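Why does residue order matter? Because the sequence determines the fold. Keep that principle in mind as you read this record.
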Amino acid sequence: MKGKFYFQCITCGRHFDQDEVTYLCPYCSGKNVPGQPTRGILKILYFYDQIRRKFKQDKLFQELETSRFLPLLPVENVSSFSFLKVGDTPLYQMKELLIRENRNKKSIPVPFGLFLKDDSQNPTFSFKDRASNLVSAFAREHDLDIIATASTGNAGSSLAGICASQNQKAIIFLPAAAPPAKLTQICMYGALPVTVAGSYDDAFDLCLAATDEFGWYNRNTAYNPLTIEGKKTVSYELYRQLGHTIPNRIFVPVGDGVILSGVYKGLEDLLQLGLIEQLPVVVAVQASGSDNLVRNINNTAFTSHKSSTIADSISVDIPRNFFMGRDYLLKYNGETITVSDQQILKASSLLARNSGIFCEPAAAAAYAGFLSYYQKNRIEADSQNVILLTGSGLKDLQSVSSLVTLPEPVKPDLQSLIDSKFFRKPLHK
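Structure:
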């Protein structure tokens, strides 16, 4: 093998040099059929022994971090990345359980470690910036000026924003039902949106056909292997932010399985480098109305069910990265759980009211999964638990509109304020 990395097909196991393939295994991709998850997805691997020999073990992670993890990324130069600050998002340790419905109820101290990883702090307010930044950097190094992707909204607005910062052109395919806020973002960044009269899966397939026809570079998740490499950086950050340790559990919202695989891939890199001895339990959380990965994890044949959930970012009929996500969960004893839309909405409200973090429903699904574990006494004392929050609630206000009642205007005098049904009498002097 030549170069700094190589590819391995997760279906047949074949290896390819870094300049031999771009998207899928040429031997397995021809066997893909409509209505089924993608076969022939490529995993990017590095020469871990060489990296370990290059640095002293006690300085290994520090050296990798100083280089912005370039030895573990499929690009050559830091200058290829956007100037926007992607990653290094906050990890908040919560001292109280976030379960109070209002401020009058007694707070409950946390009997275990509870951490919120807030990736809504990325430039376009979602976790997807990690993947878009790497894809854009790779495209820049290879003189690829037009990048296309299919998206339910977040990946599209992410690619649009990162490309705007890199003077690249972005073409975004998304279902017509995508939230207006995400479509507005895409338009404001100057990208070309293509709304498709169909589902995300329809947009995905049309994007593939268009990039094949016109020669654009394709960012689609579970198709372009760089997306997983971008998303894995969250695991490196967690390792650093937790004092060079890993938590006991990480709760991850899951749609097509790429974020899940990204979290695992970063942890697997740390394992290969000898920085950790075992992986934490990763909990894949899906909406019960879109549970096609969880539903099929132990099945010999994949069957898809029509998705219906308020969590649009994880609403997927065909989880394209099903096989890699499933393999990771089974190999490392991961766990799965589904949560209802009602649980997701409640989790979103509890997070906002108790932490000040307003998440979109897909992100709140991860906290809903944690709450279900807690209520079933599945969170061990003294354990460390991370909830991955992947996107801002401002991206989809319609989904949470049932949780709030907007006030009617009052006359600009004190008595009208006092008489207002929205005025809280306990606030009186």
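DSSP finds 14 helices and 13 strands in the chain.
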